[in-house]
Design a protein that fits this description.
Number of helices: 4
Radius of gyration: 14 Å
CATH class: Alpha Beta
Shape: globular
Helix content: 25-40%
Order of helices and strands: HHEEHEEEEH
Structural class: alpha+beta
Distance between the termini: 48 Å
Largest sheet: 6 strands, mixed
Strand order of the largest sheet: 2-1-6-5-4-3
Oligomer: single chain
Number of domains: 1
CATH topology: Nuclear Transport Factor 2, Chain: A
Length: 132
């Protein structure tokens, strides 16, 4: 399977809420990186392995509601797959919403994602999580 299809399968899992499909496309030792400080954005930081990725999603979905999520494009070059998209979310604790374009960068080896890094407007997230 080519690298782009590996990552596309992950997003198909997101669409259907199928965590097994998502995790099946990842290596056992995947590194998952979300920008920000964990005391400001609960799901920010470095998560390792499939259990770490599961913990990331459990934390994210226990703290935010997805109002809109769009994937604009997939771009593949070598072992990198870049996904461009947009999200509109609501923080459950504050009721505040944020919107941001994002870039997801995957490294794929031997048919599995081994690294994920997100680039997003962290200031918008921090503001939405702030009770001020």
């Amino acid at each position: 399977m080519d690298n782009r299809r590996v990552v596309e399968a992950i997003y198909k899992g997101f669409e259907t809420g199928d965590m097994d499909t998502i995790l099946a496309s990842m290596s056992d030792d995947i590194v998952w990186l979300h920008p920000g400080k964990a005391d400001e954005i609960p799901f920010a930081g470095r998560f390792e392995g499939k259990k770490g990725v599961q913990r990331f999603f459990n934390t994210a979905f226990s703290t935010i509601d997805v109002l809109e999520q769009k994937v604009h494009s997939f771009e593949a070059s070598g072992d990198k797959v870049i996904v461009l998209g947009f999200e509109h979310m609501r923080v459950k604790a504050t009721g505040k919403e944020y919107q941001s374009n994002w870039i997801h960068m995957y490294t794929v080896k031997a048919g599995q994602a081994v690294m994920f890094e997100e680039f997003i407007d962290t200031a918008a997230l921090v503001d939405a999580f702030s009770s001020n």
